[in-house]
Amino acid sequence: MDALGDLLRGVRADGALFNRTVLTRPWETRRAEGVALELITVVRGVARIAVAAAGEARTLRAGGAAIVCTNAPFTLAAAGPGTGSGAGPGAGPGAGPGAGCELVTGAYQLDSSVGRRLVSALPPLLVVPAGEECMPIVELIAAEIAADRPGRQYVMDRMLDWMLACTLREWFDLPEACPPAWYRALGDDVVGPALRAMHDEPARPWTVAALAARAQVSRAAFARNFTDLVGRPPMAYLTEWRMTLAAELLAEPGATVASVAGQVGYADGFGFSDAFKRIRGIAPSGYRASLALQHGKRGQDQKLGALSA
Hints:
The chain is α+β, with helices and mostly antiparallel strands. The chain contains twelve helices and nine strands. A hairpin with a 6-residue loop joins strand 4 (46-51) and strand 5.
């Protein structure tokens, strides 16, 4: 089981919003409508970022990254020598001598359900210190934003996916990280084996007894430990995980409710539809229709943006 990979299931940049900015003064901003999270990286210089819902401001140096995952406004400001009045947000690179810092931002426009598992697992602001590993890709993204080459959006989308995975992997290893309860429970001798079994074989007809057998404890002890560590009973967690997978599968071309039901452990579409609607608040067929509308609108917006560029 790849815990981070499972957390990132369904999270894939598709027409992500990018910006390259030279910043020399404080800049307060809000996420654009429909944006689920925003990744901010520093190409050069030093920046300070503060989110109203996250406490004190944090410092970002060249190669460092931050993820903003809140609807609250946040403030970005250059820090260090060469800052003050002058170029502001939206200014191009080299906007005057001593320009404060250069930022590259990428914003994910996640669908209403796909990626919700990731968004709900993250704090309003997380910061990963500068590291040499990510710097080359940051510079490549900055160069792609400035260029006008075939496949530009596709290349930047894939780079953003790479940066997000890299940033989260580094953050989860930090002492200050606060991963979701199920992520932490993977290290437990009782709950960990059962969690891995559910993630690896979601279609299997699991029962509390079968999961307890994997953990080599009694049903009562397993159910108690699982609920204490994960925050919900085993079968409730299993249903939520199956519906997370189902949301991703329903987004695939040609998917049917019946085929997806079988892939996540349901013998028929009726029981699956009831479970999906209970967890997601919408029937599978309605969910597929909403995805089609969102993708159509996104494609239209991209065409309009290209025409106005």
